[in-house]
Amino acid sequence: MKYVLVTGGVVSGLGKGVTASSIGLLLKSCGLRVTSIKIDPYLNTDAGTMSPFEHGEVFVLDDGGEVDLDLGNYERFLDITLTRENNITTGKIYQSVIDKERKGDYLGKTVQVVPHITDEIQEWIERAAMIPVDGKEGPADVCVIELGGTIGDIESMPFIEALGQFSYRVGTGNFCLVHVSLVPVLSVVGEQKTKPTQHSVRGLRGLGLTPNILACRSTKALDDNVKEKLSQFCHVPAENIVTLYDVPNIWHIPLLLRDQKAHEAILKGLNLLGIAREPDLTEWTARTKNYDMLHDPVKIAMVGKYVGLTDSYLSVLKALLHASVHHRKKLVVEWVEASHLEDSTAEEDPNTFKAAWNHLKGADGILVPGGFGDRGVQGKILAAKYARESNVPFLGICLGMQIAVIEYARSVLGLHNANSIEFDPKTSNPCVIFMPEGSKTHMGGTMRLGTRRTYLKVPDCKSAKLYGNATFVDERHRHRYEVNPDMISELEAAGMSFVGRDESGRRMEIVELPSHPFFIGVQFHPEFKSRPGKPSALFSGLIAASCGELDELLNKSSHVSKVVGSGISNGKATYNGHQNGSYFNALNGSLNGVCVNGNGVHH
């Protein structure tokens, strides 16, 4: 096994995830099998209990792991399926060591950071690196490891020590360190300054790690004299210093690395030069150029409660982007803070209220993503009502599906106090209830998580057609509340159609309004399986409906007898979460190339 470690210096947010994903893609294009590991030095066991404002979205894996959003980047970029083992946190490491201590594995020993914590880190890396993630048997050829945070952080010190030991343990030719650093340009003098990177590398070397490659973030390509200076003071060959300068969209980064021969430096450091082929990024290059030329817009209103940090909805944005590029449209996202649609905002801040409604009414389609807590719920309900009554394409995900059901019960059934017990535990008309198997005392890892099967009960519904006439689909979940099964017959009698259910038939997974051009709510999260070249079927349907191409898409899908999926059932295709297409995906939280608006603010 070969290892590539990506670290960051000077400041956070330089794009280590972009760099790690791009390196992975580059090595994969050289014919190598690649896996990824993300190390997060925080004490949380996983990302499941973190606020999106704190750490961005929580990405959910097939096995139910709640992990850092960077693992979503790796999955989308490398088209792999990772496990919870691929996300290492300080909490997991210490928990594992303490469990071993309690069992007596260290009997007689004083348990210490060195060697017990550092050994556990190394063993975890080796174990996770061996897990197949690309659908093939046996381990990958190369494991790309991203160390979160910045060199010098106190919380990452045990990982730095462990990785220093690990590099010695696996030996020369099996370990390559790529250090991402900042080369700022002071506007006063216009000169690229190398001192921050010098200090960062000096700190890294002082901790026992020596970089093989420097990836320097800057506004423009590094001058030759700057490279020479960095080479001299950082002890890195000039040909191993690459520039990650600002580009129109983030998909140019792998091409930048290839053009600067970064793959050759990595392959040389890993003794793979004679084994790997030249990188083949022909298709990637063509897609990058095609995307740059898109100009016909499709405007989607994103009605959420975490719109202050767009990384909170990163996978949703990527799925929208995949689908819009597939339909050759330029994605424009209108951010709408859900609470700004409510009457209370109209009284307190009429201008904000008016702007929010203008954004909503000016959109071609409306998407209400998942979320927790009661803030902004009434605004989401109003958005669903507007979409339903105005025949605007609507997609509700997780909570978005639940509020669509609540709105229908209130407006159509006349149950004005209909609600979720999450927001009103004493409601007399609970449309959404707490799942029986959930825990009310422990929050972390107790939701219904990971890939679950949904059976499509109505063959000619829009969802079934979008999924290529599948009889069932496998999608990822993350929820602890569900639509009340005791109210289904009443809702269906009033015109709602619950077209997708779990294996028991009592848990609702997909709801549609047959009388509406496109009104779909899903309990699962289809965005987590959207991939480059394989857009989510439901996101593709939303974009198609928003630009007047839904009938064409449904007719095309209805003739599909087999799609990328998990087999054949009753002579019809089954489906594992995405459909074939020709487009690709951005690497991290940056929204380069996506026009994003919201409440008068351009992000």
Automatic annotation (TrEMBL):
Keyword Chloroplast assigned to the entry: answer is no
User: Which InterPro entries does the record cross-reference, listed alphabetically?
Assistant: Class_I_gatase-like, CTP_synthase, CTP_synthase_N, GATASE, GATase1_CTP_Synthase, P-loop_NTPase
Q: Does the keyword ATP-binding apply?
A: yes
Q: What class of enzyme is it?
A: ligase
What sequence ranges are listed for the domain CTP synthase N-terminal? 2-272
Highest taxon of source: Eukaryota
Q: What pathway is it annotated to?
A: Pyrimidine metabolism; CTP biosynthesis via de novo pathway; CTP from UDP: step 2/2
Span of domain Glutamine amidotransferase: 309-543
What's one GO BP annotation on this UniProt entry?
A: pyrimidine nucleobase biosynthetic process
Task: Give the record's keywords alphabetically.
Answer: ATP-binding, Glutamine amidotransferase, Ligase, Nucleotide-binding, Pyrimidine biosynthesis
Recorded catalytic reaction(s): these are:
UTP + L-glutamine + ATP + H2O = CTP + L-glutamate + ADP + phosphate + 2 H(+)
Q: Name the EC number(s).
A: 6.3.4.2
Q: What GO molecular function terms would the record report?
A: ATP binding; CTP synthase activity; identical protein binding
Matches recorded under SUPFAM superfamilies: Class I glutamine amidotransferase-like, P-loop containing nucleoside triphosphate hydrolases
Family statement = Belongs to the CTP synthase family.
NCBIfam families referenced in this protein's UniProt entry, alphabetically: PRK05380.1 (NF003792), PyrG (TIGR00337)
**Annotated function:** Catalyzes the ATP-dependent amination of UTP to CTP with either L-glutamine or ammonia as the source of nitrogen.
The protein here is known as CTP synthase
